[in-house]
Amino acid sequence: MDLLADAAERDRTDPLAHTRDLFVPSATPLVAYLDGNSLGRPLKATRERLTALVDGAWGTRLIRSWDEQWMDLPFVVGDALGAACLGAAPGQTAIGDSTTVLLYKLLRSAVAHAGPSRPEIVLDSENFPTDRYVAEGIAVETGAKLVWLHPDPSRGVTVDDVAAVVGPHTGVVLLSHVAYKSGYLSDLPSITRVAHNAGALVLWDLCHSAGSVPVTLDAAGVDLAVGCSYKYLNGGPGAPAFCYVASRLQPVLSQPIQGWMGNSDVFAMGPSYAPAAGMRRFISGTPPVLAMTGIQDTIALIDSVGIEAVREKSTGLCEFVIAYVDSSLAEYGVQVASPRDSAQRGGHVTLSHPDARSLVAALWERDVIPDFREPDGIRIGAAPLSTSYAEVAQGLLSLESLLRSAP
Ligand SMILES: Cc1ncc(COP(=O)(O)O)c(C=O)c1O
Ligand SMILES: Nc1c(O)cccc1C(=O)C[C@H](N)C(=O)O
């Protein structure tokens, strides 16, 4: 069977095929959007929800909407996200700030909580830059010591890697659940257990798993987590991130950006700060109400189809890519740079090729949109709710035709 016929057959039997039509179509030609792991597509429902917000809660109810619904929105949306995607019971997830700022708030809180007898932060050289930079800044600020792991770039951090370095001086282990380059899916429950056995806290970055890979924060006993909402959660450019703080830790953590919205009585406006109980203390300033709009629609959609179904389609799309690389693109020097075992891979597949940079540029000219990641990665992030097999097939055929015509 040729690739397009194979894709058509898969689309015909795909239980999530219908969700693609719920997204806003591109107004200009788009052959294949394969970058849902950087910026997800908007849902049509979001356009309606934004208009309704402008006309109603904002345009009509005005300041009254803070009392009527907005003060609690970070927690209402956080709880919905926790239930649909994160395995988190209510009262532990909040929306607000960027991932970077939330990483700072939670890592800084955790370092302070661990205290001077546990000054080490364990992290890895393959993690996304912002995670590494935030930790570097906190090390300078607090005197914490960074303990670097250097995992094989084609995979990511394993249980054994963590077990080898944690000990009586470890305060916090900071890792990404899905590696942004290789797509490696770390064993979150086992790594959390190893860190806890050493007496350390764990802070997981879920940017590349939220809305794509089911996460079991409560069941795994995770302490802290952050993640962004503009990838698989389709919150839109710059949509706010989320943070998770396990209930048991909320009363004992003090976050460093003390703002009025995290105060115990927000409108008391008293002389000094007294942190609110629960997740409110992790909020600093006014919540980004408009920017929380899109996330709500995708959470509702994932809740209706189930995160397990999303993961199943995601795995199918990735395996479809890998099979075609093996059968047809390997002869042009394309390699699979992600783990081949789906159980060890998140929602994207990275291919490597010496000319990856120019190939991606040429693909963009043909309205095929993967992304390039240094040094030689072509990252295929086919968001399962908005991407068909046919779209992925068109993208792969475009790549093949470029490779075939290369001098
Ligand atoms: C693992 C990871 N952490 C953090 C971020 C981004 O942080 P921010 O939302 O602050 O831009 C990204 C992607 O942008 C990411 O892939
Ligand atoms: N967050 C991004 C942005 O603000 C602009 C352009 C791209 C991005 C990304 O999502 C990068 C992404 N986290 C990555 O995994 O490479």
From TrEMBL:
Q: Which domain of life is it from?
A: Bacteria
InterPro entries named among the record's database cross-references: DegT/StrS_aminotransferase, Kynureninase, PyrdxlP-dep_Trfase, PyrdxlP-dep_Trfase_major, PyrdxlP-dep_Trfase_small
* The enzyme's E.C. designation: 3.7.1.3
Q: Which cofactor does it need?
A: pyridoxal 5'-phosphate
Q: Which reaction does it catalyse?
A: L-kynurenine + H2O = anthranilate + L-alanine + H(+); 3-hydroxy-L-kynurenine + H2O = 3-hydroxyanthranilate + L-alanine + H(+)
Which keywords label this protein?
Hydrolase, Pyridine nucleotide biosynthesis, Pyridoxal phosphate
The annotated pathway is: Amino-acid degradation; L-kynurenine degradation; L-alanine and anthranilate from L-kynurenine: step 1/1; Cofactor biosynthesis; NAD(+) biosynthesis; quinolinate from L-kynurenine: step 2/3
What the record says about family reads: Belongs to the kynureninase family. Belongs to the DegT/DnrJ/EryC1 family.
Q: How does it assemble?
A: Homodimer.
Q: What does this gene product do?
A: Catalyzes the cleavage of L-kynurenine (L-Kyn) and L-3-hydroxykynurenine (L-3OHKyn) into anthranilic acid (AA) and 3-hydroxyanthranilic acid (3-OHAA), respectively.
Q: Which protein is depicted? A: Kynureninase
Q: What is the source species? A: Branchiibius cervicis
